[in-house]
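Example record

One chain of 277 residues, shown exactly as stored in the release files.
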Amino acid sequence: MHDFVLRYGRGMGFNTSIITLIFHVLFLVFLLVALAFLLYMLHRSRVERRKMRRLIARLRLSNSKLSRYFDLDDLTAAQSRRYLVDRIDRHKRRETHALLYVDLDEFKTVNDTYGHDVGDALLIKVTDAMVAAYRPGDFVARLGGDEFCIFLKGCDLERAGQVARRFLQAVVEADVEVAGRRVIRTASIGVCESRPDQSMEDALNVADAALYKAKSKGKNQILAADQDVVLRMRQKQSRPSAEEVGAALENGEITYFVQQIFDLAQDRIEGVEALIR
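Predicted structure tokens for this chain:
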């Protein structure tokens, strides 16, 4: 490069010292421009990194807000079913917890008599009352309609029954006034343990079965899931559904036979029966 500049400069009539000076000046300018460009790119990279960090921080904040939004029930601000599933799955391997399945007695009559606005207001009051009654580490989740599930951390069945009575009282004390009249409702509660070897759905099904049994005994009742309830739930879960039987027939996993039921005394066919093998 230097030789080329010398030959070109001599052809233009410049002496060697002038040509060398010009070359060094141009080379210095080139170095300064290159250095300036590198400094600019370094500054730009730092600015972009700061922008990226701010963007990541905003995304994390938005994700946290979105997660909290989906973890809360829109109407009552109780925890959502999604939050309940997450907490049970997170803690079930550590210790046994208790679940209270709460259903308001004859809540439909509130909506039918006073309207859904009054019903919603009562749900909010009931939720606030239950939230005020639980212990640190516990929480209330709304499953839908007038059904709630209360998660009692590290609580056995006997202790859960005592806590459930406190919640029953809290529900009764929650009221909404309409045209000078107090609108109140009682609740029925099914209690069960959530063991480490149970899925969340299994635990809820057991609590729901206990709740159904409590309602059959009358209003404002608490019933803990005994061995009979657990056994019935296991038997129910062990029976194949109609969809499962249909799929097995289509796949050739099982076959069915239809045979007549014959009444020997009357000498006639009484009906038919289907056998699956």
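Notes: The radius of gyration is 37 Å.
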